[in-house]
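Lecture notes, unit on protein representations.

Consider one protein chain, 104 amino acids long.
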Amino acid sequence: MLELLPVLIGAIVRLLPIAIVYLIGLSIAFSKKKRYPKASLYALFGFGILLASAVLSVPTQMIILYPVSRETLGITILVINLVLGALHVIGSALVVLAVFADRE
């Protein structure tokens, strides 16, 4: 487990800047909820999903490093990439929807 510590620290350091951006987006969307209800809702869900996918990417990097057979590793990486990619697309689409919502 100790040999995985540098990988964990590196993943957290890589995650920190984008997590801060997503948290700022969440706080701005929450503060504008009364003025722009639809846009804020899209932004809250979008930034929430993006933050969740970013946070989920950290333990998945640890899973990949555990010793498993080549067949299992390939399927594991494929599933992880598909799920995280889908979450990123959904979150990004919601943020784009938020940009254009509540316009008259």
